[in-house]
Design brief:
The protein is an alpha/beta fold. The chain has 13 helices and nine strands. The protein has a five-stranded parallel β-sheet with strand order 2-5-8-1-9. A hairpin with a 4-residue loop joins strand 3 and strand 4. Helix 10 packs across helix 11. The longest helix is centred in the last third of the chain and has 17 residues. The termini are far apart. InterPro entries: ATPase_AAA-3 (IPR011703), CbbQ/NirQ/NorQ/GpvN (IPR050764), ChlI/MoxR_AAA_lid (IPR041628), P-loop_NTPase (IPR027417). Pfam families: AAA_3 (PF07726), AAA_lid_2 (PF17863). This is AAA family ATPase.
């Protein structure tokens, strides 16, 4: 192959400006369906671009499923939904080998984890073994059934929801499993003007029915690759390390190294959303609450948020 042909076949990574534009297109498209949750939409885009997963803890009926569907549609990706129930089995999540009588062979039937955007609805309603089936796929990006390993689609992002209304009918996620979610956020109820706008939009056909893609799964893969090259200087890395150390000194369970890595990756994605190819402390500060609060545990009256806020107030920026 000649140099000319090699140049023609070379597909350069997108610029951070292109990544920022991609995020804006996705966000604006999702907001055609979802009213009043701009920050939550950006949180999901950050997690998607940073190869992370997101946990939504909220009351029923605030648009969690529509939000996940709108994200998947916007990137022309496949959307799968798993309704977690007490009788759900791990094979209902990952897939199962079924005997085909016509061919006298076993065939693998993919479970709902084989999607680009997977909604795990009310994950805390299922017993721990079934929860672990999804969380293992989140970590390994693959499913192993009867000794055969299959990769899930790329990109792959899980948006899991927790029911916090009926705690007596749920199974708490272990702290080690919570740690696998890059972010945890709340949607909350819309205000009066937002709910009025929402009712106007759904009084006829639901806008999700006419939503069109504004990007492709390939665009997301390219954005992910570009974000890996966003510079994280040593002073910023030290700042993250000192914040993490502060949470460990103040809490019974502070932020793990996995949490520090997740914060750096989220900050890289946030910088790219702002069309910068380097991380600044402000990126860390904008992302730290959604990335760290759910990882911190205390045995006194303080919350994880209290510990993280104290770290932000105490640890200086170099």
């Amino acid at each position: 192959m000649t140099d000319a042909h090699a140049d023609a076949d070379f597909d350069p990574a997108p610029s951070v400006e292109a990544v920022s534009d991609l995020a804006t297109r996705i966000s604006e498209n999702v907001e055609r369906v979802i009213v009043g949750h701009h920050d939550a939409i950006e949180d999901i885009i950050v997690a998607l671009f940073a190869r992370g997963h997101l946990l939504l803890e909220d009351v029923p009926g605030v648009g969690k499923t529509m939000l996940a569907r709108a994200i998947a549609t916007s990137i022309e990706g496949s959307f799968e939904r798993i309704q977690f129930t007490p009788d759900l089995l791990p094979s209902d999540v990952t897939g199962v080998n079924v005997f085909n009588q016509q061919t006298s062979e076993f065939e693998f039937r993919e479970g709902p984890v084989f999607g680009n955007v997977v909604l795990g609805d009310e994950i805390n309603r299922a017993p721990p073994k079934t929860q672990a089936a999804l969380l293992e796929v989140m970590e390994e990006l693959q499913v192993t059934v009867d000794g055969v390993t299959r990769r899930v689609p790329d990109p792959f992002t899980v948006i899991a929801t927790q029911n916090d209304v009926e705690p007596d009918r749920t199974y708490d996620l272990p702290l080690a499993e919570l740690d696998r979610f890059m972010k945890k956020i709340h949607l909350g109820y819309p205000n009066e003007s937002e709910e009025t706008e929402l009712l106007g939009r759904v009084s006829g056909h639901h806008p999700i029915e006419s939503l069109e893609p504004v990007a492709s799964a390939g665009d997301v893969r390219d954005a992910r690759e570009r974000i890996l090259d966003v510079t994280v200087s040593e002073p910023v890395r030290r700042y993250v390390s000192r914040l993490a150390a502060d949470t460990r000194a103040r809490a019974d369970l502070g932020v793990s190294p996995r949490g520090s890595i997740a914060l750096v990756r989220a900050a890289q994605a946030r910088a790219a959303l702002d069309a910068r190819d380097y991380v600044v402390p402000d990126d860390v500060q904008r992302e730290v609450r959604s990335v760290w609060v759910h990882r911190v545990r205390t045995t006194d009256e303080r919350s994880g948020r209290d510990v993280v806020e104290r770290a932000l107030d105490t640890v200086p920026v170099e």
